[in-house]
User: What shape does this take?
Amino acid sequence: MSLLSKQAREPRALPGKARPGQRGSMNRKRIIISVIALTLLCGLALAQRPSRRSRYTGPRISEVPKNDQDLSGRFTFVRIRYADTSWCNGQFDPVIGDGGFPWSHDYPAAGRHLMKIMAELSKIDATLDVDEPIFTFDDPQLFKYPFAYLCEIGCMNLDEKELAGLREYILRGGFLLIDDFRMQSQFQNLQRQLKQALPEYELKKLDVSNPVFNCFFSIKTLDVNPVYGAYYTPEFWGMEDKDGRLMMVINYNYDVSDYWQFSDNPFRPIEETNEAYKFGVNYIMYALTH
Assistant: This one.
């Protein structure tokens, strides 16, 4: 066999293509570069998503703001606080907002942003650019507001006055959104206290056909992103009065207000944020029309 024929049998490297002996080395280089790039991207993502205890960059408020102004003349988003947080002591800083008291998570940006969306999408005269009022269930001023938000109920331990206030608020037509909690033990804590306050009513799991998911936007699915991880599948629960009116909606294993809070963050997925706003708008519209 001539030298020419041997050379003819060897594969020739095409422009921009490696010889067989070089491919392993180049593949290794590609892998190394990919790993470095992935590491940099992960570092950037983590930098853009700080921990729950540190991501709030606004002023740190150590005392609950006083509700000096009566905002009941307009639709106002209000927040519920519970006095006893002893079950979670040591797990948060004594401040209002992310990293602080459990009932204050996502305050105040989530409520502010949701009210802007309500004002843009409807003719509701919403209170804008104001940090939401904060009430306990036994505060008589709460009854001026038809919609209230409550979160992180795994740390909640209501006393008798708060339980009585919860019952009265709900039965007088108030609507309660319970959000931002996970795990069966936290849900059981909520169920126990709701049973104390409203023993004659039962919680029921909601499906997408419920009017609350179709009263303004037509929400197509409840299979939302598991924000707490794959082991915590979001579920939607409610409690109806004797006439079938939902008195509350419970976002179990979900945190809809987190999307509201960071909706001005360009690193948040637009589609999931839009869906979270649809839930919020529907909850409010249902509360005001039923």
Notes: Residues 1-56 have pLDDT under 50 and may be disordered. The chain is about 35% helix and 10% strand. The first strand starts at residue 78 and ends at 80.
